[in-house]
Design goal:
The chain has two domains: 1-88, no CATH class; 100-251, Nucleotidyltransferase, domain 5 (2-Layer Sandwich). Helices cover 43% and strands 13% of the residues. It has helices spanning 8-11, 14-18, 37-49, 54-67, 77-84, 116-122, 156-165, 183-191, 215-226, 230-241, 247-260, 269-289; strands at residues 100-112, 129-138, 143-151, 171-175, 195-197.
Length: 299
């Protein structure tokens, strides 16, 4: 699968070629859209997977079309850039036959600023700017379910309820690190029909107001004390509930930065959001390559 994800036919497939020209008509005045959403999405996928500029992406596509002997036209680099903010990006993912075990985390991607060497030698300047990427992931398929991009001052716990609300499949458990230990997150997990796997804060006390969504937190606090309390009790509790599944989303964050880099190349906010979504969609396609297909055998 590591070899196949570099194959150009994986990203520039016959399905995309067949849908290259747009057949939709908006009914509005003006020139209709010539290239389909799939064509622009394909161009952007190639751009970010192979880390190309917009101009290089156009040249790359022109060469492919010529070498493959196709009669389809190639979109101009300026058109690809212009359509990037409005392109529709579905997250391709495998379907799980069981209720999902969802894990949450976030990471920062640099928009502009100095590199690590300059910061280490001379310190950082005020121009360092970041965007925060919030991800929910399925622990069974190891694929990203929902993603959101915010400014770096938005807290993780404030984003979780909205992301959780976008998941339509049945949910078994929801895991995350200690920052998600707030009433809003427990309420969102309760509404989604899931069971929280969130460690209470070290100085946590039981909630005595009788709120049903908070009851799993009270049970976690009590269980940690039963297991010895302190770090020993917390570690034993984490092992008992399978908290280690959260490391899968941390691995996904690492893969995004390793494969696509830790910087956003887009300057406009809407294009930055598109860039994040496309990288996550590409990562899901890569992950699907390495997961064997399973079939239920007749008994």
């Amino acid at each position: 699968s590591l070899i196949n994800r570099g194959s150009i036919t994986f990203w520039f497939s016959n399905d995309v070629i067949d849908q290259w020209n747009s057949k939709k008509r908006s009914g509005k005045r003006g020139r209709p859209t010539f290239y389909s959403n799939e064509a622009i999405l394909c161009a952007l996928m190639i751009k970010y997977v192979y880390r190309l500029t917009y101009r290089a992406t156009q040249s790359y596509l022109e060469s492919l079309i010529q070498l493959m002997g196709l009669t389809i036209p190639c979109p101009d680099y300026s058109l690809i850039c212009r359509r990037a903010s409005k392109v529709q990006i579905p997250l391709p993912r495998l379907q799980s036959s069981e209720p999902l075990h969802v894990v949450f985390d976030s990471t920062g991607l640099k928009v502009y600023g100095e590199g690590e060497w300059k910061v280490r030698k001379h310190g950082y300047s005020k121009r360092r700017t970041w965007r925060k990427v919030h991800i929910s992931m399925c622990a069974q398929t190891q694929q990203i379910l929902v993603v959101a991009m915010t400014s770096n001052d938005v807290s993780d716990e404030s984003v979780m309820p909205d992301l959780l609300d976008q998941i339509t499949e049945p949910i078994a458990t929801v895991g995350g690190y200690g920052a998600y230990d707030v009433a809003e997150c427990y309420g969102a997990i309760f509404d989604a029909g899931g069971s929280p796997r969130i460690p209470p804060r070290r100085n946590a006390r039981k909630n005595t107001k009788g709120d049903i969504p908070i009851e799993p937190r009270n049970q976690a606090i009590a269980r940690i004390k039963e297991l010895g309390g302190g770090e020993e009790g917390r570690n034993a509790w984490k092992k008992e509930i399978g908290y280690h599944k959260r490391s899968l989303v941390e691995t996904a964050m690492y893969r995004i930065k390793t494969i696509f880099g830790d910087k956003l190349t887009s300057r406009k906010s809407e294009n930055q959001s598109t860039e994040v979504f496309i990288k996550c969609a590409a990562l899901n396609k890569m992950t699907a390559l390495g997961i064997p297909e399973s079939y239920q055998l007749a008994s």
